[in-house]
UniProtKB/TrEMBL annotation, chain A:
One of its GO terms (biological process) is tetrahydrofolate metabolic process. Transmembrane segments: none annotated. Residues 921-1009 form the Aminomethyltransferase C-terminal domain. Residues 631-900 form the GCVT N-terminal domain. NCBIfam families: soxA. This is Sarcosine oxidase subunit alpha family protein. The keyword ATP-binding does not apply. The keyword Oxidoreductase applies. Residues 1-20 are annotated as: Disordered. Belongs to the GcvT family. It comes from Roseospira navarrensis. InterPro entries: 2Fe-2S-bd_N, BFD-like_2Fe2S-bd_dom_sf, FAD/NAD-bd_sf, GcvT/YgfZ/DmdA, GcvT/YgfZ_C, GcvT_C, GCVT_N, Sarcosine_oxidase_asu. Coiled coil: none annotated. Keywords: Oxidoreductase.
UniProtKB/TrEMBL annotation, chain B:
InterPro entries: SoxD (IPR006279), SoxD_sf (IPR038561). The lineage of its organism: Bacteria, Pseudomonadati, Pseudomonadota, Alphaproteobacteria, Rhodospirillales. One of its GO terms (molecular function) is sarcosine oxidase activity. This is Sarcosine oxidase subunit delta. GO terms for biological process: tetrahydrofolate metabolic process.
Length: 1017, 95
């Protein structure tokens, strides 16, 4: 299973850590075959193999190593997977090592060790803060030259190009108490809540729960901390009917009202399935009655020249690599810390056989339990000193640090270089407040903690442990217990059962011994006159202390401006390690205290979520539901070519013997006009309206009158929005005094239903009317053409003579042996009927009509022919009802009732909407009788035709077709002043995008059977 | 995601609902013959209150009823909800 590779894990300890040395996993990094063990992350396995250089930086392509050990790590971003499985910008520290894992470094060309763009390090003097902004205010002719170079250098990683072969899913969960973070505080809180019978979800971004108890050498109740963690997890797991444990799951966002999003990296779990099995990631939608945040704290790096070399690492991360993974991140170490807790690094590193040469501490005369203990074991404690610079090798990283004496913010070189390949640094800890602050809480600055604390006005969510600014393991555990019990009570549950006991902690425990000397604020070590390196604040975005000073000098003095101008904290890590240092430096530059500067906005997500997890199942055919007509199958068998129209799959045309679309449509139109055609109109919106006030209701929502509509008759109606613009048109059939069947256009079915419900519920609750959508309840077929009555007669015993069933009449009874409503209405301009049957009979209706109509030359037609015939007839449709047209614009001005009120009436009276010069509906035919007039063309005057744009526009072409029934292309459009001004004149339909112009004559918009004799026949 | 208390169905996630502007009690539809200015204000002008607001919401993916929600536009806290005048009473509501 493991391929031959270099020396096996030269930096792996022989024992210790929470890894399984009995199994070996092989993986590849940049083509090299390497090994690790279960329990490793990719980061720990790389370090175990002595791989220190893992990435190139974003802007300068500087060589970078691993600085952190978790979500905070700003630099160890790699591309994972091979082939179609490719995920860029993944944190090596959060990636669980699996057998066969393939990873590559990023931002390097041609290779990580030799990167061409790193030469920009030489040119970096030309890439100061605001580089991109400044570049693009240079003369624009320079841009095409700079563009390709910038594009090659900029960006993080490469996007995958093939579809993602993995599955993702979303899941919704509800709980009484959500606990975020499974360190000591979170485990106590979860146990406390679980013992009261609460439904608990415990989520932690790490694959292995336990938080700092895994990373630090800690003893609880006289046993290793990990034993306590195992017991706690076992107890929680035993309550699996109430408790859900989510390892490798990052709660990425707090949304309103207890709603949390969590990204579950299933393949990073210790018990992950093999690639391709089950979903790779899952996005949890968690609704929690109460939440306990136990998200810990993030260590801050120190800012000094040359602080970005591989081998310069957060002190806590160095301890974690030693203690949790049994990995030595270096052989000879210096610790650089501005507070006592950093000293505990000394003992852990020494315990792992790493030589600790010195502790460098800016504070003068440091005394305290931990510093004294360090002195006692013979480590040089250089208090009153700082590291002013580093030196190293491009690929091997750190080789030495330069010692400076430090006093009152000033610094003098000592002239001593200390050889070291590991620098463990700590500038203090910042509570992880991201989730707390995402919904508007304002963290407050604490001068003692030298960090932001949670907003005291925004509790709950209950906060416990490091994220609450609490120090000392005992206090953290007790706070976790209290938070868990508070959450239970606040969730309305009773505190029952015995609370989990707080384990006893050794008084010798480093977190318990207390601090002798308070932490000193050290936001940046001054830059020596002859420094070899830059002072990086944000090593993901390559922002230096100088950049911040420059930005301030150039006037970007607020923290939000600073962020955008320098890119500080704008990387995928969102400045987890850099933000506080950055804004402290800005405060220094402004000469103001840190609280005056404030923080930038904490935004979701806490860490990046893959696009796959966001999309979940909603990809490919699951992207949206598909609606099919009840007669879909029968039409498919008849050779229909379907088209997606909104959610519907709708027959577009029915080609025969290799016909093109145009040929098929022409045949369908001509056959319908000559004999009879049939079309599925089940797609139309249908609303059933009942109640004594039904006609009054129609009167108030349509522009025309309805009171006079007799039972058994159908009427066309147009409804407006409140602003006077047309909303939709359709027909209403009066089935009884108090019963109306309304149709709407397909596209507006939902909108019209909502509009009517709003009117009834909000404006006129006194009307006794009920509405229900029946779109899915009815299947409908329109039969049209001179032989449609003959066809109908063949399939029904109802009297369908012109006298019994005149134009706009209706009848109810069996058709094709099916219960039916027959409306004599026409969209095509032909003698036509719409036959409605309950949806379940739709398939039978289509098949029986097809059979019965064969002798009459019946053809099925699709939406394309339907559209052609309505244009020839001059009926308006969606392209005309575009939200900007009034009844007058549509040529329907005479329908507007003056005798009643209706929605839209008042604002339709606005002078601008009454202007006779408004664009109004006209017909257009090509002057040459054959050139098509493209829909979307702009209408311009002939005298402007030869001019360059911009040209005064007179209107536009809304719909066009080849006009098979009239023998030449026809179009509908809107022209300023309408027919009254333009009838008989010529305009030009210009389509500048395609460079075409067609001279068109303006005619009335009824090309086919203008007097209506065919539909009335 | 906000939880909106539908007077008929109970609390449901915000994606079930659509927003419909201010409470009609505060923003009444003008009379048919009211001046154009009044109608223009009604259709086009909305206050954007900071803090407490009474808003019209519809349980679009549920019972489809419009009702009034009292909500803080800054904190998104929901103080309560009630049916519009003339709406059917929620089942079990005390009269
Ligand atoms: Zn409801």
């Amino acid at each position: 299973m493991s391929a031959p590779g270099p020396a096996r894990q030269p930096h792996r300890l022989g024992s210790g850590g929470h890894i399984d040395r009995s199994r070996t996993l092989s993986f590849r990094f940049d083509g090299c075959s390497l090994t690790g063990h279960p329990g490793d992350t990719l980061a720990s396995a790389l370090l175990a193999n002595g791989v220190r250089l893992v990435a190139r930086s974003f802007k300068y392509h500087r060589p970078r190593g691993i600085q952190g050990e978790g979500a905070e790590d700003p630099s160890g971003l790699v591309a994972l997977g091979r082939g179609d499985r490719h995920e860029p910008n993944t944190r090596a520290t959060l990636t669980t090592l699996t057998d066969g894992l393939v990873a590559r470094s990023q931002n390097r060309w041609p290779s990580l060790r030799w990167d061409a763009a790193a030469l920009t390090a030489v040119a970096s003097a030309f890439m100061p803060a605001g580089f991109y902004y400044k570049t693009f205010i240079t003369p624009p002719q320079v841009w095409p030259l700079a563009g390709p170079i910038l594009r090659r250098m900029a960006g993080m990683g490469r996007s995958p190009t093939a579809p993602d072969p993995d599955r993702y899913e979303h899941r919704t969960a509800h709980c009484d108490v959500l606990v975020v973070g499974a360190g000591p505080a979170g485990l106590m809180a979860a146990q406390a809540a679980a013992r009261c019978g609460a439904r608990v979800i415990l989520a932690d971004e790490r694959a292995w729960m336990g938080g700092c108890l895994l990373k630090e050498k800690t003893r609880l109740d006289g046993r290793p901390g990990t034993a306590w963690v195992a017991d706690a997890l076992e107890e929680l797991a035993s309550r699996d009917d109430r408790v859900t444990l989510l390892p490798a799951t990052t709660v990425t966002g707090q949304h309103d009202h207890g709603f949390w999003l969590a990204a579950d990296r299933i393949y990073d779990r210790p018990d992950a399935p093999a690639a391709g099995e089950g979903p790779r990631q899952r996005l949890w939608h968690i609704r929690a009655t109460q939440t306990v945040l136990a998200t810990g704290a993030i260590e801050r790096p120190l800012v000094f020249a040359g602080n970005d070399r591989a081998g310069v690492m957060l002190a806590g991360a160095a301890r974690a690599f030693v203690n949790q993974y049994g990995v030595t991140p270096g052989r000879r170490a210096v610790v650089f810390t501005s507070h006592d807790e950093g000293y505990r690094t000394v003992f852990d590193l020494r315990g792992a056989g790493i030589e600790v040469v010195a502790v460098v501490d800016p504070r003068p005369e440091v005394r305290g339990p931990l510093p004294d203990r360090a002195r006692a074991v013979g480590v040089r404690v250089l208090d009153g000193h700082v590291i002013g610079d580093t030196r190293g090798h491009p690929t091997r990283g750190l080789e030495g640090v330069a010692l400076h004496r430090y006093h009152d913010g000033g610094m003098v070189p000592v002239g001593e270089w200390i050889e070291a390949d590991l620098l463990a640094m700590s500038g203090g800890w910042s509570p992880t407040l991201h989730l707390h602050a995402q919904t508007g809480a304002r963290p407050v600055w604490d001068d003692d903690l030298l960090a932001f604390r949670p907003d005291p006005w925004r509790m709950p969510p209950w906060m416990a442990g490091g994220c609450a600014g609490t120090r000392g393991l005992d206090a953290v555990l007790r706070q976790g217990l209290e938070a868990g019990r508070n959450a239970v009570e606040a969730a309305g549950l009773r505190l029952t059962g015995a609370p989990p006991p707080v384990p006893a902690i050794d008084r010798d425990e480093p977190s318990e011994v207390g601090e002798g000397t308070p932490q000193a604020p050290l936001w940046a070590v001054p830059k020596p006159a002859m420094a070899g390196g830059k002072r990086f604040v944000d090593i993901q975005d390559d922002v230096t202390a100088e950049d911040i000073a420059l930005a301030h000098q150039e006037g970007f003095a607020t923290v939000e401006h600073l962020k955008r101008y320098t890119a500080l904290g704008m990387g995928t890590d969102q400045g987890k390690t850099s933000n506080v240092n950055g804004l402290a430096l800005l405060a220094e530059a402004r000469g103001e205290p840190i609280p005056m500067v404030g923080t930038t906005t904490f935004r979701v997500p806490y860490t990046p979520i893959t696009m796959g997890a966001l999309a979940g199942e909603s990809v490919g055919p699951r992207f949206a539901p598909v609606r099919r007509s009840p007669m879909h199958e029968a039409q498919a068998e008849a050779g229909a070519v379907f088209q997606t129209v909104g959610p519907w799959l709708r027959p577009r045309y029915f080609p025969r013997d290799g016909e093109t679309l145009a040929e098929a449509v022409r045949r369908e139109v001509l056959a319908t006009r000559a004999n009879v055609g049939m079309v599925d109109v089940s797609f139309l919106g249908k609303i059933d309206i009942q109640g004594p006030d039904a006609a009054e209701f129609l009167n108030r929502v349509y522009i025309n009158g309805w009171k006079s509509l007799p039972v058994g008759r159908v009427r066309y109606g147009l409804m407006l929005r409140e602003d006077g613009m047309a909303l939709d048109d359709g027909t209403c059939a009066r089935l009884a005094e108090d019963h109306v069947a309304m149709t709407t256009t397909t596209a507006n079915a939902g909108r019209v239903m909502a509009h009517l419900e709003h009117a009834l519920q909000v404006h006129w609750p006194d009307l006794d009317v009920r509405l229900v959508s029946t779109t899915d309840a009815w299947a409908a077929v329109a039969i049209a053409g001179p032989k449609s009555r003959q066809l109908l007669d063949l399939v029904t015993d109802l009297d369908v003579s012109n006298e019994a069933l005149p134009f706009m009449g209706l009848t109810v009874g069996p058709v094709c042996g099916l219960p039916a409503r027959v409306f004599r209405i026409s969209f095509s301009g032909e003698l036509a009927y719409e036959i409605n049957v309950p949806a379940g009979y739709g398939d039978a209706l289509w098949r029986r009509l097809t059979q019965a109509g064969a002798a009459l030359g019946l053809v099925p037609y699709g939406s394309e022919a339907l559209g052609v015939m309505r244009i020839e007839k001059g009926h308006v449709a969606g392209a005309e009802l575009d939200g900007r047209t009034t009844p007058h614009d549509l040529g329907l001005g005479r329908m507007v009732s003056t005798k009643k009120s209706f929605i839209g009436k008042r604002l339709l009276q606005r002078p601008a909407l009454q202007d006779p010069d408004r664009p109004a509906l006209v017909g257009l035919v090509p002057e040459d009788g054959r050139t098509a007039i493209p829909a979307g063309s702009q209408l311009i005057a002939t005298e402007h035709a030869a001019e360059a744009v911009p040209i005064p526009m007179l209107g536009h072409v809304s719909s066009a077709c080849s006009g098979p029934s009239v023998g030449h292309p026809v179009a509908l459009g809107f022209l300023k002043g309408g027919l009254a001004r333009w009838e008989g004149q010529t305009v030009v339909a210009a389509y500048p995008l395609k460079g075409t112009q067609v001279r068109a004559r303006v005619v009335p918009p009824h090309f086919h059977d203008p007097d209506g004799s065919r539909q009335n026949a | 995601m906000m939880l909106i208390p539908c007077p008929w169905c109970g609390p449901r996630p915000r994606v079930d609902f659509s927003y419909g502007g201010p409470d009609p009690a505060d923003h009444p539809r003008p009379a048919d013959d009211a001046p154009l200015e009044a109608w223009t204000r009604y259709v086009y002008e909305r206050d954007t209150p900071k803090g407490s607001a009474r808003e019209l919401w519809r349980h679009a993916a549920g019972c489809r009823q419009w009702f009034v929600v009292e909500r803080d536009t800054v904190t998104h806290e929901v103080a309560g909800s009630h049916p519009l005048p003339g709406a059917p009473r929620p089942v079990g509501e005390d009269l």
